[in-house]
Design brief:
The chain is of the alpha/beta class. It is built from ten helices and 13 strands. Helix 3 (about 55-70) packs across helix 4 (about 90-100) and helix 7 (about 215-235) packs parallel to helix 8 (about 255-265). Bound molecules: oxa(dethia)-CoA. Oxa(dethia)-CoA binds near residues 254 and 281.
């Protein structure tokens, strides 16, 4: 028997306020046509004044727990993937833990920017596979609107706020790709590219929060290559072909990156879950938001093979192959 981390619940939350490209045209030198053509983004959700990352995370977590038929008291572990915590410390996960009424186990944040959900899922999977944890809640939650320079048209049009969550439960499998659960995870980072996508503030460097700075076209070039590579790596590790994948649930940064990855793999783009047009780039939240959407609308069904993949600042990138 092989221990497998099975996804038994999904949830998501988006703030109420939608900001369209047309609205941004009024405050920054950009056009709806440019944003749609270069990124595929048409609108984004922005958290209300006073609405924090832990608020978004809590709402997504509540829905994922209800979907799993569990409560906070059933959890052994919470990991929140976020680059926009409520405070420098303690972890945003600690706030979510308290609000969910979870008093045993442990909760912590994980920082891998846009790859945060993949890193968090892989970490929780390893806690489950080692036998240390039986039930885990993995959340991706961000309020990127708080770290945007709203005068920098190269970044402010690209990001949005939101949260998504999954509940993992230890189950048993045969050790084959037919097992339900996380079949493999592959994580990578290359710190030589730190300066291509970063926030120009932080407690130990400037004592300020700072804003996102990005050399977009250089990040783009790396993203297309890295995304195709991690997909190939995941398939090879499991002895599978691209045609075995039912759904790719990618990090949502740019429609051109998603379509480029699909082309490289020879996968029809209809098998990618796309939310970037409506959510924009929500960093660590984008994959669980997309996953929850496709599960809720019935596209993703139990037993299907899902490939989750992301790339973000650091650089960090990685994948999780999941039999849902
Ligand atoms: O989530 C983590 C990973 N992040 C990503 O994967 C983001 C990757 N990068 C991208 O998605 C794209 O590079 C962007 C959407 C950010 C930009 O698209 P691009 O085709 O790479 O454009 P560019 O940065 O090369 O800029 C082209 C032109 C420039 O003007 P000049 O120098 O050619 O005159 C920019 O100044 O577009 C200009 N530009 C804009 N114009 C109107 C940049 N931002 C805007 C804007 N509106 N918002």
């Amino acid at each position: 028997m092989t221990l497998r981390s099975q996804i038994v619940g999904v949830g998501s939350y988006l703030p109420a306020r939608i900001v369209t490209n047309q609205e941004l045209e009024k405050s920054v030198d950009t056009t709806d046509a440019w944003i749609v053509e270069r990124s595929g983004i048409r609108q984004r959700y922005i958290a209300a004044e006073g609405e924090t990352t832990s608020d978004l995370a809590y709402e997504a977590a509540k829905e994922a727990l209800a979907n799993a038929g569990l409560t906070g008291a059933d959890l052994d572990l919470i990991i929140v993937g976020t680059a926009t915590p409520d405070h420098t410390f303690p972890a945003t996960a600690a706030r979510v833990q308290a609000r969910l009424g979870m008093t045993k186990g442990f909760a912590f944040d994980l920082q891998a920017v846009c790859s945060g959900f993949i890193y968090a899922l892989a970490t929780a999977d390893n806690f489950i596979k080692s036998g240390q944890v039986k039930t885990a809640l993995v959340i991706g939650a961000e309020t990127f609107s708080r770290i945007l320079d709203w005068q920098d048209r190269g970044t402010c049009v690209l990001f949005g706020d939101g949260a998504g969550a999954v509940v993992l439960k230890a189950g048993e499998g045969q050790g084959t790709s037919a097992d339900r659960g996380i079949l493999s995870s592959h994580l990578h980072s290359d710190g030589r590219h730190y300066d291509l996508l970063y926030v120009d503030g932080g407690p130990s460097s400037t004592k300020t929060t700072g804003c996102v700075r990005m050399k977009g076209n250089e990040v783009f070039r790396h993203a297309v290559v890295n995304m195709a590579e991690v997909v190939g790596e995941a398939l090879a590790a499991n002895g599978l072909q691209a045609s075995d994948i039912d759904w790719v649930v990618p990090h949502q940064a740019n429609i051109r990156i998603l379509e480029g990855t699909a082309r490289k793999l020879g996968l029809p783009k209809e098998r990618m879950v796309v939310t970037v047009d409506r959510h924009a780039n929500t960093s660590a939240a984008s994959i669980p938001l997309a996953l929850a959407e496709a599960v809720k609308d019935g596209r993703i069904k139990q037993g299907q093979l899902l490939l989750l993949e992301a790339m973000g600042g650091g650089f960090t990138w990685g994948s999780c192959l999941v039999r849902f």
